[in-house]
Amino acid sequence: MADALFVVLRKIALSLGEETLDKIGIEQVAPIMADFEHSMKQIEGELSVMQALIGQVSAHRVGDKAFDAWLDQVRDVAHEVEDIIDEYAYLAVQGVDTSSFFKRKFHQIKNFVAWQKFSSQISQVEARIQRLAEMRSRYGLSVGEQNKSKDLQPATDHIHMSDSAYLTDYSDIVGNVDEIRRLKEWLHEDRQGRTLIAIVGMGGLGKTTIASSVYKNERIKTSFDCHAWVVLSQSYKVDELLREIINQLIGERATISSGFRTMSRMRLVEVIQSYLQEKKYLIVLDDVWDKDVWLIFNHAFVRNNCGSKVLMTTRRKDVSSLAADSYVIELKTLKYAESWELFCKKAFHASKDNTCPENIRHWANKIVAKCQGLPLAIVTLGSILSYCDLKEQEWAFFYNQLSWQLAKNLELSWISSVLNLSLNDLPSYLRTCFLYCSLYPEDYKIKRKQISKLWIAEGLVEERGDGTTLEEVAECYLIELTQRSLLQVTERNAYGRARTFLMHDLVREVTSITAKREKFGIAYGGAGTAQVSNEACRLSIQRGALTLNSLGSSRLRSFIVFDTEVPCPWIHDILSRFRLLRVLCLRFVNIEQVPGVVTELYNLRYIDFSYTKVKMIPASFRKLVNLQVLDLRFTYVEELPLEITLLTNLRHLHVFVFHGFQQRSLNWLSATKIHGNICNLKNLQALQIVSANKDLVSQLGNLKFMRSLAIMEVRQSYIGELWNSLTKMPNLSRLVISACDMEEILDLKNLKPLPGLKFFQLSGKLETGVLPLIFYNFDKLTWLKIDWSGLKKDPISSLSHMLNLVDLRLNGTYCGEQLAFRAGWFPKLSYLQLSNMDNLNWIEIEDGTMMCLNQLELFGLGNLKVVPDGIKYIRTLHQMYLTDMPKEFLGSLQGNENPIVQHIHNIHIFESSDSEAVNNFCFVPYLSIVFMWGFEVETIWPDKDEFSDINCLHTPQSTGAHLALDSR
């Protein structure tokens, strides 16, 4: 709950570390800035103590209205301090970065009054901090002995939640049949050693309900000599938990008479050990929040070789990892049919067969869909609606007011309380980042790279040192959020890293309520009020932008627009009000030029104009000296001004033009020209896609932090200097090199290895038609694509040593007639694409090769008349995509009895003359075949549902696919 303090303390530390005075050089301002730094150090000390206090107390005072009111006052002060710091940074940059001496002097004179205001503003903040300290003492909000962490009784509300789940009528349980069966099997299992079993999943999935249903099963219960059930919760007192276990094992009377209430912790452990020594026991630890508590219970629950079982429920995967030999059940949300069944049982229990009336079925379906398979929400909403009249108007009103209901309706507080437990358990740095995720729309796939950059731009990611980048720290945050069951991984890249995440919609709703209440941010959806609080620090507009009546917050730090219908004048007008903005995202917005006011927003760290009609970046971008991310993908920007090379804080530069789909070309994407010397961009980590020239390829060697590079229009005369620069990039892991045209021959002989490379795409003819020896040094490569190289020798044997390869794409790579995949080759390969090899008429696949292959794509292999017989050996193959394949080849596929392909679940057949299936079926996989680009799919390619928006901005040639055979 100390999130606002966490953010402002980071900003104070960063502002004090900058030598702003030396940069500005204004004698009149020097005393003001000296006083400012002194005062900020004092404020930093006060807020640090306050943050520690809140962190120690807040988790145990949830629902304490006095504490919450005081905390609101603390947040207000934190926001005031943040405003002062950002205004300070704004004036500092404005005083330095102007185009001439006269303009600089003009700004210095104009802003002198603003500098003078700092003294009074800081005095007011110091006075408010003093009053907050007095208020804390006056109303008894100090820590005190009773608030020691881990020594508190569980929160009353949480006890009631657990008790309610424990007392559920198990005849109403729907779904999780396999999980319950597996759990019963494990409990009945005749295994001598003590077994630790875990049930893990997000709050509200029914972990306690399932554990309780099995725990109370008479057949299971009687198979154990003794049993106990204890609830841990976020706040627990170990001694009391141990006494409760003894109460249930031995009996309360015996506990009182034996003096267990006064025993020390170690003595209690010994008592449990002694009692369980010769017994087969079953103990359930419900709602475990950290691994530390197991250190005590591990000693108490003796390993006696009697077949004892310990079952724990938890929301955290790191806790579930304690379970032995993968005895872990990870609960998922219910399928829609199961959700509907459960809802009807609750909402229509009074009707015959729990049937939903037709007049309200539409709204009932929408309510069930909103729950997204979360049993807690389904049961709660169904129970409330069971008392409502079965009138369409009433059910429609309830659905449309659901967000308000979650925030205000006491009957729904159970849902919010359960979901908020996970939110309130987060440390400040992680809670702040998670609140940011609530700015995304419902069901939005949150991309790892995008959210990481946004967090960093907002200053929410901590430096860890030791060469760890902020992007890597941000990825650790995402991993931790998934470990805590708050985000779900929906897609992974070739080597297993999470690419996209999903936030359950009810979690998003509850988190949005918290973010709005705490003035962290608002996700505006166009419904309800047309007013947005001027105190909001972040704003995402998902729809209905033009319905906003009030939007003028000077406090705004992030402005993200998802509504693509907003007109240019609205954008130009609105941006003039956001003086201290750090994040500006106008992706897909219908603008043709950069709004002029953008270059006056000196605090900007992140700019996203991707998928717009912007044609030019003005030279005035030089003013944005704090800029870290510039995203211009799928725009019309064909060259960048010289001034871009002055942005020394730039970390990620993505820019290219989309010309339309051209099947046999290297130029369907256009590389962007960069003028000037890029040596100053020393913080650059990603650069895509740039046009090569003689000076650029040599300057690249100065970019030591480069991790991802895409360079096109490469000539043979550049290769030596280019490769020399690449060897100076110790962290380079992703590389795309494309020749200037289809006829340019690249000689890669005698080049030094790039040992850290994981992703590599090479497009262009290779000298002598043989893979160069450098390919034998790519030991870490997981993703490889070779385009139009004109090889005369089968390249498969030359690549077979790549044991880590997961994704292999050969497009126009080979001029020969046969390819051979031998036993033992490519043990990790999951995806194989073979395309545009006109002479290929035979593919040999031995038993034992590519034993993990999941997806095979064949495109434009005009001479391949027979389905490779060896496909029958690849039992893991589930998907085949076939595009523009010969009729003879397709004819051999017909019929379910074909022994070669009968194990493949889905075979998709396309013709490139039909565009409908590209839109409606599999846009990205199809493009990856036809258009020869797989590098950084999550960065370059939009989501499938964004394709129609691209068509509005660009008019590509008609191309596509047609589904002829599917899902056998």
From TrEMBL:
Residues 556-858 form the Disease resistance R13L4/SHOC-2-like LRR domain. GO terms for biological process: defense response to bacterium; innate immune response-activating signaling pathway; plant-type hypersensitive response. CDD domains: RX-CC_like (cd14798). The keyword Repeat applies. Pfam families: LRR_14, NB-ARC, Rx_N, WHD_DRP. One of its GO terms (molecular function) is ADP binding. Residues 439-509 form the Disease resistance protein winged helix domain. Residues 20-99 form the Disease resistance N-terminal domain. InterPro entries: Apaf_helical (IPR042197), Disease_R_plants (IPR044974), LRR_dom_sf (IPR032675), LRR_R13L4/SHOC2-like (IPR055414), NB-ARC (IPR002182), P-loop_NTPase (IPR027417), RX-like_CC (IPR038005), Rx_N (IPR041118). SUPFAM superfamilies: L domain-like (SSF52058), P-loop containing nucleoside triphosphate hydrolases (SSF52540). Residues 178-351 form the NB-ARC domain. Keywords: Coiled coil, Leucine-rich repeat, Nucleotide-binding, Plant defense, Repeat. The keyword Cell wall biogenesis/degradation does not apply. Belongs to the disease resistance NB-LRR family. This is Disease resistance protein RPM1-like. It comes from Paspalum notatum var. saurae. The lineage of its organism: Eukaryota, Viridiplantae, Streptophyta, Embryophyta, Tracheophyta.
